[in-house]
């Protein structure tokens, strides 16, 4: 396969949230864009987050006011851009006087309420806990409550990739960038995948490889990195639902860190995250026993329900590649992003992304476009702030959409309708086109996953494996047993073979 005659304006390496955000922004401004990801979209750090769109209350202690303000402003913007995958969530912070005095927390929450525009979320308040009704230990009698948002992190990546594709970008997964060279001020990018190797050309190269950012610069582009990174491992555990309230808890610890307990998929509680230096292969990040003990201990210090390791249903870990600011502790390394541009005379530009967080991905993309815009004569203006993501078009209410699905699709389960509405928004009608009964959805794999949806995910959302579908597209991975996964794998293999035969024909 050869595309060497095609010269793209921008080639993005990396299919995490920053990469797809930059690709979508660039494509929407009229630039031709090629993005390649060595694995599945969002298969690393971008799907290993705490699933939050938040300002970062604890960053105020580190005086990162610019980052917090930007994140708070973005929180409001993203809530409008993707209301099907982002929802308001109230957070309760139990007060531990020996850790932080009440006046300090009140001051922090005042800034949190007023640093950024807050139109859709309720402000903070002081709360008192009734021992008989509170899931917290009886000695915890008061605390504070404030607002942030929960997000389906991997679907946020998928939706940005879809938007990029619909704006004309070419998105390629399972394709490794093996080498980049320059020729006459143009990047030659060698891509390798299961089908073989091919080359594309690009005027600007964007290194959005996350944990591999310095490795890409040194080994692939053979360019000296202006910054070093610190890889910080963050791990989470998932346990059965710990309390009935649909609120999250933010728990303070003696080491000055915080741990979240977050309602997850209606049936579970997500607990995390940790902060530890990581120096091994970022392709294979696993939770350590020390992290498990740490998270369990913090929870057990706060909640009446005492957890043991036997309660853990699932764990996941990711590596945050943060720009090294010489902080003494992993938890205090800045979460802000840094963009560097390598561009000497007669050299093709190379933009690299260091750090960043999911909440500020859109603003990061705008900053990236500001840096590469001078290399093009005609580039469109900023556009992403007001543009909704796929599925949010004409979406007046997720609850109303659920009702429409229940009316239109006979015999569909409420739980399935809710999942569809939140995952796809109004794009669910592309999946359910000409469908009026669940029997017409094809093979039933369990828990509301039918062949019709699987086919759509393979055809339109770059899904290939059962993990792509269950973990990053539908969040059904906590429901399926081994046998059900094998059945889905067999279906996907047969589907893949049929598609190959069709391509050959």
Can you describe this structure?
Keywords: FAD, Flavoprotein, Oxidoreductase. Its EC number is 1.1.5.3. The chain is of the alpha+beta class and 505 residues long. It has three domains: 7-45 and 155-228 and 335-375, FAD/NAD(P)-binding domain (3-Layer(bba) Sandwich), CATH 3.50.50; 86-150 and 230-325, D-Amino Acid Oxidase, subunit A, domain 2 (D-Amino Acid Oxidase, Chain A, domain 2); 398-504, Alpha-glycerophosphate oxidase, cap domain (Helicase, Ruva Protein, domain 3, Orthogonal Bundle). Helix content is 31%, strand content 25%. The protein has helices spanning 17-28, 65-81, 102-114, 153-166, 213-220, 289-302, 361-372, 398-408, 414-424, 428-431, 451-460, 466-473, 482-504, and strands at 7-13, 33-36, 52-53, 86-94, 125-128, 142-151, 170-172, 176-183, 186-193, 196-207, 229-240, 248-252, 258-264, 268-272, 276-277, 314-323, 337-342, 350-355, 444-446, 449-450. Helix 1 (17-28) runs parallel beside helix 4 (153-166) and helix 1 (17-28) crosses helix 7.
Summed up, what is this model?
With 505 residues, the chain is of the alpha+beta class.
């Amino acid at each position: 396969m050869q595309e060497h005659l095609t010269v793209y304006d921008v080639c993005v390496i990396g299919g995490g949230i920053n990469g797809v955000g930059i690709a979508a922004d660039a494509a929407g401004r009229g630039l031709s864009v090629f993005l390649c990801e060595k694995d599945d979209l969002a298969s690393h750090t971008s799907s290993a987050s705490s699933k939050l769109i938040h300002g970062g209350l604890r960053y105020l202690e580190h005086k990162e006011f610019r980052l917090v303000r930007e994140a708070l402003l973005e929180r409001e913007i993203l809530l409008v851009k993707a209301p099907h995958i982002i929802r308001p969530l109230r957070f309760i912070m139990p007060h531990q006087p020996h850790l932080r005095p009440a006046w300090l927390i009140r001051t922090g929450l005042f800034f949190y309420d007023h640093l950024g525009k807050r139109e859709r979320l309720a402000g903070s308040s002081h709360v008192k806990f009734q021992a008989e009704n509170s899931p917290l230990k009886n000695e915890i009698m008061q605390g504070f409550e404030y607002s942030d948002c929960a997000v389906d992190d991997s679907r946020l990546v998928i939706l940005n990739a879809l938007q990029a594709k619909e704006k004309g970008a070419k998105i390629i997964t399972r394709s490794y960038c093996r080498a980049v060279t320059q020729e006459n001020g143009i990047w030659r990018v060698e891509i390798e995948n299961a089908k073989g190797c091919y080359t594309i050309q690009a005027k600007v190269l964007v290194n959005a490889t996350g944990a591999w950012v310095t490795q890409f610069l040194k080994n692939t582009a053979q360019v000296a990195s202006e910054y070093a990174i610190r890889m910080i491992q963050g791990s989470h555990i998932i346990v059965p639902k710990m309390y009935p309230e649909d609120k999250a808890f933010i728990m303070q610890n003696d080491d000055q860190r915080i741990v979240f307990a977050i309602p997850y998929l209606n049936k579970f509680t997500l607990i995390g995250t940790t902060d530890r230096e990581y120096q091994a292969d970022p392709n294979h990040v696993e939770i350590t026993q020390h992290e498990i003990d740490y998270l369990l201990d913090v929870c057990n210090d706060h909640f009446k329900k005492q957890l043991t390791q036997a309660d853990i249903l699932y764990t996941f870990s990711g590596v945050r590649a943060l720009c090294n600011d010489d902080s003494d502790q992993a938890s205090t390394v800045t979460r802000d992003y840094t963009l560097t541009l390598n561009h000497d005379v007669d050299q093709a530009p190379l933009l690299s992304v260091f750090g960043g967080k999911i909440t500020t991905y859109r603003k990061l993309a705008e900053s990236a476009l500001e840096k590469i815009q001078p290399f093009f004569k005609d580039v469109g203006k900023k556009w992403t702030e007001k543009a909704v993501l796929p599925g949010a078009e004409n979406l007046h209410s997720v609850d109303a959409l659920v009702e429409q699905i229940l009316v239109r699709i006979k015999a569909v389960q409420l739980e399935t309708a809710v999942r569809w509405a939140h995952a796809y928004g109004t794009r669910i009608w592309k999946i359910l086109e000409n469908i009026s009964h669940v029997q017409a959805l094809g093979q039933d794999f369990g828990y509301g996953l039918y062949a019709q949806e699987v086919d759509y995910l393979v055809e339109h959302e770059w899904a290939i494996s059962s993990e792509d579908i269950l973990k990053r597209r539908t969040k059904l991975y906590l429901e399926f047993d081994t046998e059900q996964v094998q059945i889905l794998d067999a279906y996907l293999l047969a589907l893949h073979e049929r598609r190959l035969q069709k391509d050959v024909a």
